[in-house]
TrEMBL record:
BP GO terms, sorted: SNARE complex assembly
PANTHER family: OS07G0418000 PROTEIN (PTHR15157:SF25), UV RADIATION RESISTANCE-ASSOCIATED GENE PROTEIN (PTHR15157)
Protein name (database record): Uncharacterized protein
GO molecular function: SNARE binding
UniProt cross-references to SUPFAM superfamilies, sorted A to Z: HAD-like (SSF56784)
Organism: Platanthera zijinensis
Length: 269
């Protein structure tokens, strides 16, 4: 073991799960709004999925993927429009103004987040139950990550909002890596800042150099707000789900180091 400890976010740092979440959202949208999807062609579905990759940085919670799917449909098919915002709306404008658009479309579509959260969760669970290997194949690890994790001499922890068992399954099936369950802090283990406090307090971690790699700038900003966590080196992965604007902002924050994928892989070794 080296004398470095790495706490790693999962989605957007290790694993590109955007294909999976977009496909789950498309499945769920067809259940929620069957009339709207009656005449949607496979070409249009492909276009929607492609745009979802561009829009992924705005997604904070999974159900927002459903809203994006429907909004993209409204952009492309004018006669299906039931919101006031779709006319002339560009992908760039959604990236820019998602927090303003979201409440407007939810009101105009008469949707509640709790219903969409339940539906999205059910659709994903059903996919996993019926076709675990298909579900796993819808995600991929970023290039070089599997080897980096396999040969890492640093102490690795996963800190994610995903359920631990899903992160574990993806690590084993996609990367051939087994990370002991006590090193995976998943959904239900508390906010990331609390997990980092827990990790740094462990007797066996005293004297280790601490590193936290994330793709969401807001999460890193939350760490910076906690003086107790001043000892952590913070990294924003350029390859993850963040925008050019967020990366520019990160450059102006002295605590945050911007990291390229290849540098990340070599750091772990
Ligand atoms: Mg992430």
């Amino acid at each position: 073991m080296g004398d470095e400890l790495y706490a790693l976010d999962f989605d957007g740092v290790i694993c590109d799960s955007c294909g999976e979440s977009s496909l789950s959202a498309l499945k769920a949208s067809k259940i929620r709004w069957p009339m709207l999807f009656e005449e949607v062609t496979s070409e249009l579905e492909e276009w929607i999925i492609d745009q979802m990759h561009v829009l992924r940085p705005v997604v904070e919670t999974g159900y927002e993927n459903l809203l994006l799917v429907r909004l993209l449909l409204e952009i492309r098919v004018p006669y299906l429009r039931q919101s006031s915002v779709a006319d002339g709306l560009t992908i760039e404008a959604i990236l820019e103004k998602w927090s303003e658009l979201k409440p407007v479309i939810m009101k105009e579509w008469s949707e509640k987040s709790s219903d969409l959260i339940d539906l999205f969760g059910n659709v994903r669970d059903e996919w996993i139950d019926k076709d675990l290997s298909g579900w796993i194949d819808a995600s991929r690890f970023y290039p070089g990550i599997a080897d980096a994790l396999r040969f890492a001499s640093s102490r690795i922890y996963i800190v994610t909002t995903k359920q631990s068992r899903f992160a574990d399954a993806l690590l084993r099936k996609l990367a051939g890596v087994t990370i002991p369950s006590e090193r995976i802090y998943g959904l239900g283990t508390g906010p990331k800042v609390e997990v980092l406090k827990k990790l740094q307090a462990m007797p066996e971690h005293q004297g280790l150099k601490l590193h936290f790699v994330e793709d969401r700038l807001i999460t890193l900003k939350n760490v910076i707000k906690e003086p107790e966590l001043d000892g952590w080196n913070l990294y924003l992965g350029r390859w993850g789900y963040n925008t050019e604007k967020e990366r520019e902002e990160a450059e102006s924050i002295p605590r945050v180091h911007l990291l390229d994928l290849s540098d990340f892989s070599s750091k772990l070794k």
